[in-house]
Structure formats: C-alpha cells, structure tokens
Amino acid sequence: LCKAFLERLAVLRKPTLLLADKPVGVLTVGAYRNGGQELVIEQIQTAMLCHEVMVVGGKPRAHQGATLWNAYDDDITKDEFGIDTARKLGMRVAEAALRVTKA
Questions:
Q1: pTM as predicted
Q2: For residues 49 and 11, is the Cβ–Cβ distance under 8 A?
Q3: Taking 70 as the threshold, does the pLDDT of residue 103 lie above it?
Q4: Which residues pair with 24 in a beta bridge?
Q5: Is it true that the peptide bond before 23 is cis, omega within 30 degrees of 0?
Q6: 3-state class of 69 per DSSP?
Q7: In this model, does residue 98 exceed pLDDT 70?
Q8: Is 38 exposed, middle or buried (0-12, 13-18, 19+ CB in 10 A)?
C-alpha cells in the first residue's frame, strides 16, 4: 500500500512540485522491535526527497522517524516506546510546519 501511495504521488511533481518545502515525517510498523522499520523509513524519505520535501525526524529516540512494534495481537497501542516515538515525531513535524508558515 505504501509503495502504491508513493508511486501515485508522482502526479504532484508535474508541472510544479506541490509538496516542495512541506515537512514530512515517516512512521513505520513492524512485527519485531528492530524488524527493518529503519530501512523502510530511509526508503520512504528518499522517495519523498524527490518531491523536495523537508524530512523531519523526532527527538529524542526517534531520530529518523517513528517505529512501532506490532507484536501485541495487532494492537500497536500497547507499544509504549513506539507510541512515544510517534508522538515526538508528530510534535516535530508540527513545529516544522509552524516554522514554515511563519517564514
């Protein structure tokens, strides 16, 4: 689904870059704590850079983006660490959006 979404974003690149300078944060979910989510974040960020977006990471503990663990009967809300990284990433994206609108 994510790949299809990224491919369909291509129409926003022509004739102008509609996503340029917009802050973007990436959140991924995996079956294991370190199940490749960081690599997926990297690939999504690379694809989004083709749109000249501003890639935003969270801090602390979510430097690249948010990673959630889907090991609790398909309930990511039980992953306190992952929810914390998602919250921090969301706050950083919101802060970046506010800075862009003020500039």
A1: 0.85
A2: no
A3: no
A4: 55
A5: no
A6: strand
A7: yes
A8: middle
Alpha-carbon span 31 to 37, nearest angstrom = 9
The amino acid occupying position 96 is: A
Which of 77, 82, 54, 48 shows the shortest CA–CA distance to 66? 82
Tell me which amino acid residue 91 is. Answer: M
Minimal CA–CA distance to 57: which of 28, 25, 19? 25
Residue 22 pLDDT > 90, yes or no? yes
SS3 call for 13: helix
Owner of token pair 């929810």 = 83
Instruction: Give the integer Cα–Cα distance in Å for 78 and 55.
Output: 27
Q: What are phi and psi of 39, to 5 degrees?
A: -70, -35
User: Tokens representing 95?
Assistant: 């802060």
Both tokens of 6, joined, read: 């990224």
Task: Say how far apart CA 97 and CA 21 lie, in whole Å.
Answer: 9
Who contacts 54 (Cβ-Cβ below 8 Å, separation ≥6)? 21, 22, 23, 24, 96, 100
